Amino acid sequence: MALELSLEGQPGAAAAVPPFDPEGDGISRLDAATVQEADAGGPALSRIIFGDAPAPEVARQWRMQGFTLADVDVSDAPGVTPFGAGLAQINGGPCAVLAAAQAFMLRRLLFSGDDPAGPPMPLPTWLDEAAAGGGSLLPSETEAGEALLRGLADALVACATTPSAAAMAAAGGGATLAPTPCQVVLAVPTAAMLEESWMQDERGANPELLGALVAHAARPTTWHATLEALRARRHGLASPLGALGFLVSALLTRGVGRFSEERDDPSQPLLDPQFGHCSQEVLNLLLLGVGVSNVFDGSRDLGGGFMLRGVPLRPPVGLLSELEALRYLQVGSFFKQPVHPIWVVASESHYSILFALTTRVQAVGARAALEERLLAAFSELDQEGNGFVSGEHLGTLVAALPQWQAPPLDKLRTQLDPEGTSLILWDHFQRIMMPLHPEAATLPAESAAPAASLELYHYNGLGARGHENKRALRKLLVEPAKRPVGPAPQGLASIIATRWKDALVTHEGPPPSIN
């Protein structure tokens, strides 16, 4: 279902026309000199994205994926909720771009406010009906399409204006930095470009295609101008080049040089050369506006000038990962506790979406989020998971938790190790440190009573034969701390349990697919 949107009555339609407008459509464009100097056109950009020798299937996948709405499932299959705002993924590969777009689209549909980091506010009648048990989430096609355009504008403006990862790490988590000037590069193809026969050839050389996208890129300088540029190129977004064009837009908007500096290893291509999956840096760039390589909170200095950079700030939408359920990594509290209750769900090979209709789900587990941050710092020194660390590391441990108002080290050491064993036990550390965080006094006493049940929704936009429920919205009942003793949960339930500890997850019908 292609997105057909009217320009009439839309906010921002009267935005000022930028000064350099050679095509007379209100959108400023990059000139040839800027393109040549950007180190992002043609072969250079192709190597950064695809590497030197990508599999032919990878290029094909990325030339067949646009932003289109999936058909509404009206099959009455068990556990399926009719959903009018799901993006359709055709093949594997571009799932990170589609998932990020879906997350920001849902943020616009479910919560109002032009500021992506602003306070959540529930929106319109169809949402009220759904929240009251109406059984469907059916915005109009126009509403869904407009939410997509605004969500994409949010993501691109964040890429343009978010301070560098290095600047945020140097300033510390509590500092407020002035954003960089807004300079969006929109490399989604124009309607005229789509008419060119070579643009429609799936076998066309990537350097030629990328060079053309850059040469015809728009350059809006405000959020409203970015929205208008996206609206003007909505046919390009819905075209088979939509996802690739948006990936190029995010990369060039951030700036190839700045993006490379934020990555742990800029020598690696952004797409897996065999399967076409996006790197973690690409997903982080789309969700955070910063191209960091990791999912933990903040940065970790490994010494010798080598810094691992993670999530620098609380994002508008979050991320949960199956790799955490498998104990390969730990997602930080910033991604687990985003501003809005929307999460990209990362399996080992795919991305899907988890969300709630109310911010009430965020209140549940706030204390647990602080405990996770304590545990993350403690685990850095307790690599083997013994449940204790040497007392000589107490200074390092406290330094890793600057938001905690710890007493002088000697006093804290006496509280943590009154018997002088030179060991700091995790249980003692957690009990002593929790009340020392400024937010601890305002948190609900979650252990005093069973946590409330939560309603969540899961959507996987990748269609596949033999998986009727894959491209469908599934409603879940999540009961934190209610999972009975027994086998560990699998699939989506195991991922949800990384956010809501020991959660019992129930649903109608077969288990939702995360692959």
Automatic annotation (TrEMBL):
Domain EF-hand: 369-404
GO biological processes: protein K48-linked deubiquitination; proteolysis
Any one Gene Ontology molecular-function term assigned to this protein's record: cysteine-type deubiquitinase activity
Catalytic activity field: Thiol-dependent hydrolysis of ester, thioester, amide, peptide and isopeptide bonds formed by the C-terminal Gly of ubiquitin (a 76-residue protein attached to proteins as an intracellular targeting signal)
EC number: 3.4.19.12
Disordered: annotated segments: 1-25
SUPFAM superfamilies assigned: EF-hand
Keyword field contains GTP-binding: no
Keyword Lyase assigned: no
PROSITE patterns (alphabetical): EF_HAND_2 (PS50222)
Top-rank taxon: Eukaryota
Keywords: Ubl conjugation pathway
Enzyme class name: hydrolase
Similarity annotation: Belongs to the MINDY deubiquitinase family. FAM188 subfamily.
Function as written in the Swiss-Prot or TrEMBL entry: Hydrolase that can remove 'Lys-48'-linked conjugated ubiquitin from proteins.
Protein name: ubiquitinyl hydrolase 1
